[in-house]
């Protein structure tokens, strides 16, 4: 009896020790150095996805589709099956995978150039078909990989290497609100816009990503989370200035919150 | 059983175990898309009418990533749009079958049969150093048989395979014999993405950023292409041993050329025919071996002269190579070919 009790106490102690470890690397995230610039939001989003996958216990069922852009080598960071896709064709590739493996969890990871410019047709039609996939759409308002060109989501007046005096509506048109566009499609089931510019918003982003994956797990259909993200390098700002810019500028044009839920 | 070439091609895919088809409407291959819609429904496969040719080829990419036999089809302008995807498929070493029922070009062209996409099919088509296996059937029966073979070749070499037909072959009704192929096991795909249960995570990519990594990848691809060259060349030869003039033609034109050859033979002219069945790899040796003996080659195509360049490369100046072609939907007749043969005989 004494021995048993001792063991029990010991086990409780271990459990408590584990509980103290409140922050650890998700199993789905490889223990490697990420190449992203200081203050970039990609690594946060990578982590949130991996945490979500771990929490749902779906690592062995997940197939990710990596984009062309800054996150092009996401498969070096994620420890589950990942394929590349041509620029913008990501949702079409995901469609092919999910249709033949409906029991797997298929998600795409796309930037604003990938999703809102070259891949506009693919995202609209994947959503419209109600493909049971999850899309993580990272919107930082520039093409980072290629050197900071204007993206479809670049705000009016924002300076980039291809809008030297700032984006003009006359020449470049308006920034695109993809989620609002997709929200009119009956096939699109869960749409939420979040940000990663503060701890509070990161927690909110995590909940949204979790909800989006749950939408797919429950076979409810197409889900997308737009993540407003910082690009200090091509915004020409410090990390803190970049976070403030999302709070004060970007999120006023792209309102944070659930756009549509089933 | 009577079937049009497009349907026969679709049935060949079904026999081969094709479980995924994505396509987009374009004439003259629409019967194939409709046939796949019907047959995929019946066999439990996946059929998607995509929003574009780009989406269709990339859906095929996805299905191939997931390890199933996948196919798309189109006609010339649509095949141009698929080239980006084909380059990625080749770079990622993903098997799939692409059918091109060629029509007149360039641009929107017309919907009549043509062979103007030869260069695009055999020389690469998309960006980068790669090859796809190109099969050129000449009848509805062959469309069925070679589509079936195409899936095996694609899996064997982890490479895209193209069926290069034309509007004539696709829409012509011909008698077909459907062979029974039940119980044939498909090859294992230890590279496919199915979720990493019980194994290490896998990834599929054509991006190699490390120093020298892409060159290594390219060397590996070239080695594979050389293996295909060694093992997979197919050609049909007729009457070439004693021939003074050898016709070279593929696909539907090969059948017309054969009729032209027979007209010539009936007149006592020594005419033979080489019909490349694989356009890549090209039957260089078949042509090279005879090029010392035959006096002249006459290449007949429904183009301004594309395959003729490969014939010249194989002949290496050992014989004269002449060309007869019709373009923009014009179909050569056997009489036209005979006339050309007679003119060549007179010259020599």
Characteristics:
heterodimer, A: 262 residues, alpha/beta, Rossmann fold, seven-stranded mixed sheet, two-stranded antiparallel ribbon, B: 348 residues, 2 domains, 43% helix, globular
Task: Describe the model.
The complex is a heterodimer of chains A (262) and B (348). Chain A has 262 residues and is an alpha/beta fold. Chain A has one domain (26-260): 3-Layer(aba) Sandwich (Rossmann fold), CATH 3.40.50.970. Chain A has 10 helices and 9 strands. In chain A, helix 2 crosses helix 8. Chain A is globular. Chain A starts with a helix and ends with a strand. The model of chain A has no long low-confidence stretch (mean pLDDT 94). Chain B folds into 2 domains: 2-231, Rossmann fold (3-Layer(aba) Sandwich); 236-347, Rossmann fold, CATH 3.40.50.920. Chain B is built from 12 helices and 15 strands. Chain B has helices at 5-15, 30-43, 53-65, 76-91, 118-122, 140-157, 167-171, 213-231, 251-266, 284-291, 307-315, 334-347, and strands spanning 2-4, 20-23, 46-49, 70-74, 96-102, 133-135, 160-166, 173-175, 203-204, 235-238, 245-248, 271-276, 278-280, 296-301, 320-325. In chain B, helix 1 (5-15) runs parallel beside helix 2 (30-43), helix 1 (5-15) packs parallel to helix 6 and helix 3 (53-65) runs parallel beside helix 4 (76-91). At the A-B interface, strand 1, strand 2, helix 3 and helix 5 of A face helix 3, helix 4 and strand 9 of B. Strand 2 of chain A pairs parallel with strand 9 (203-204) of chain B.
By oligomeric state, this entry counts as: heterodimer
N/C terminus separation of chain A: 54 Å
Number of strands of chain A: 9
Spans where pLDDT lies below 50 across 5 or more residues of chain A:
none
pLDDT < 50 stretches of chain B: none
Please give the CATH architecture of chain A.
3-Layer(aba) Sandwich
CATH superfamily of the largest domain in chain B: Thiamin diphosphate (ThDP)-binding fold, Pyr/PP domains
List the secondary-structure elements of chain B in sequence, H or E: EHEHEHEHEHEHEHEEHEEHEEHEHEH
Major sheet description of chain B: 7 strands, mixed
How many angstroms separate the termini of chain B?
A: 47 Å
């Amino acid at each position: 009896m004494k021995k048993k009790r001792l063991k029990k106490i010991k086990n409780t102690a271990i459990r408590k020790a584990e509980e103290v470890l409140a922050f650890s690397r998700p199993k789905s995230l490889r223990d490697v150095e990420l190449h992203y610039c200081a203050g970039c939001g990609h690594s946060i989003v990578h982590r949130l996805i991996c945490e979500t996958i771990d929490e749902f216990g779906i690592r062995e069922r997940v197939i990710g589709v990596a984009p062309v852009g800054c996150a092009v080598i996401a498969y070096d960071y994620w420890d589950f099956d990942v394929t590349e896709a041509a620029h913008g064709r990501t949702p079409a590739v995901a469609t092919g995978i999910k249709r033949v493996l409906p029991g797997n969890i298929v998600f795409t990871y796309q930037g604003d150039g990938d999703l809102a410019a070259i891949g506009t047709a693919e995202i609209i039609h994947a959503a419209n078909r109600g493909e049971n996939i999850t899309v993580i759409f990272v919107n930082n308002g520039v093409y980072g990989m290629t050197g900071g060109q204007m993206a479809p989501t670049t705000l009016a007046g924002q300076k980039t290497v291809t809008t030297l005096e700032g984006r003009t509506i006359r020449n470049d048109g308006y920034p695109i609100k993809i989620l609002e566009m997709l929200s009119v499609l009956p096939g699109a089931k869960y749409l939420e816009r979040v940000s990663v510019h503060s701890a509070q918003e990161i927690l909110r982003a995590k909940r949204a990503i979790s909800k989006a994956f749950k939408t797919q797990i429950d076979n409810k259909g197409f889900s997308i989370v737009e993540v407003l993200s910082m690009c200090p390098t091509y915004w020409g700002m410090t990390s803190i200035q970049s976070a403030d810019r999302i709070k004060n500028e970007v999120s006023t044009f792209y309102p944070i919150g659930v756009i549509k839920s089933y | 059983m009577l079937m049009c070439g497009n349907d026969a091609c679709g049935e060949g895919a079904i026999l081969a175990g094709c479980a995924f088809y994505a396509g987009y409407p374009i004439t003259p291959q629409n019967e194939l898309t409709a046939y796949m819609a019907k047959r995929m429904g019946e066999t439990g496969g996946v059929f998607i009418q995509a929003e574009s040719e780009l989406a269709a080829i990339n859906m095929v990419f996805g299905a191939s990533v997931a390890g199933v036999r996948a196919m798309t089809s189109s006609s010339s302008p649509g095949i141009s749009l698929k080239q980006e995807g084909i380059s990625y498929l080749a770079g990622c070493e993903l098997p799939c079958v692409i059918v091109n029922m060629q029509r007149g070009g360039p641009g929107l062209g017309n919907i009549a049969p043509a062979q103007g996409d030869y260069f695009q099919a055999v020389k690469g088509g998309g960006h980068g150093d790669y090859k796809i296996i190109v099969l050129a059937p000449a009848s509805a029966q062959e469309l069925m048989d070679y589509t079936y073979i195409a899936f095996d070749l694609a899996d064997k070499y982890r490479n895209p395979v193209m069926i290069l037909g034309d509007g004539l072959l696709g829409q012509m009704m011909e008698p077909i014999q459907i062979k029974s192929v039940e119980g044939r096991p498909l090859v294992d795909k230890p590279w496919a993405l199915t979720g990493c249960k019980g194994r290490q995570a896998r990834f599929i990519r054509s991006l190699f950023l490390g120093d020298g990594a892409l060159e290594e990848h390219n060397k590996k691809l070239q080695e594979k292409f050389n293996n295909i060259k060694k093992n997979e060349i197919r050609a049909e030869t007729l009457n070439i041993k004693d021939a003074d003039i050898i016709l070279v033609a593929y696909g539907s034109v090969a059948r017309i050329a054969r009729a032209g050859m027979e007209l010539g033979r009936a007149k006592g002219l020594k005419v033979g025919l080489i019909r490349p069945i694989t356009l890549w790899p090209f039957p260089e040796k078949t042509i090279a071996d005879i090029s010392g003996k035959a006096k002249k080659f006459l290449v007949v195509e429904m183009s301004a002269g594309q395959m003729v360049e490969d014939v010249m490369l194989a002949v290496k100046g050992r014989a004269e190579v002449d060309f007869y072609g019709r373009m923009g939907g014009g179909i050569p007749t056997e009489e036209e070919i005979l006339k050309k043969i007679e003119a060549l005989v007179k010259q020599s």
